[in-house]
Structures are given as structure tokens and as C-alpha cells.
Amino acid sequence: MENDITVYTTNTCPYCIHAKHFLNEQGLEYKEVNVQEDSAAAQRLVEETGQMGVPQIKVNGNWILGFDPQAIMTFVHQDVL
């Protein structure tokens, strides 16, 4: 089973860089959505989560606010690593 991971970022967020680096280190593929460059995506994100901060990471349908490696790995399908 594949993982469905989306990382919502901005251009200036250091924790977004840490989150992407962590996912790369784990060999996890992800989609990046830059909400600073895509205002429609930013609006959808706020509507869905009620949060404006980044990074926000959706892992297999579960939202994580901020860079939290333990939470990310909790929701990752381990059989694909």
C-alpha cells in the first residue's frame, strides 16, 4: 500500500525544509503544495484544518501541524518502507 503524503509549505519556513528533508531521508515520496504561491490552496487548507501555519502535513488522511517526525511515522504505512 502506497503512502499519500502532502506537505503544505511556504518559501521562508525553516520547519518546512526540515520536514521535506526528513521525508527524503525516510525514502518517502510526497507532494509539496506551496501555499505562499497558491492562494487557492492556502484557502482550502484553512477551510479543511482551521490552521494557517506551516508546515501542515497530510499523511494518509491524517493531519499533522508542524514538523513532528514521530507523528509522521505514526501514520506512514510501514510496509512500503
UniProtKB/TrEMBL annotation:
SUPFAM superfamilies: Thioredoxin-like (SSF52833)
Gene3D superfamilies referenced in this protein's UniProt entry, alphabetically: Glutaredoxin
InterPro entries from the UniProt entry: GLR_AS, GlrX_YruB, Glutaredoxin, Glutaredoxin_subgr, Grx-like_ET, Thioredoxin-like_sf
Name the record gives this protein: Glutaredoxin-like YruB-family protein
Keywords associated with the record: Disulfide bond, Redox-active center
PANTHER family the record matches: GLUTAREDOXIN, GLUTAREDOXIN-LIKE PROTEIN NRDH
A Pfam short name: Glutaredoxin
Annotated ranges, domain Glutaredoxin: 5-64
Database matches in PROSITE patterns: GLUTAREDOXIN_1, GLUTAREDOXIN_2
Lineage: Bacteria, Bacillati, Bacillota, Bacilli, Bacillales
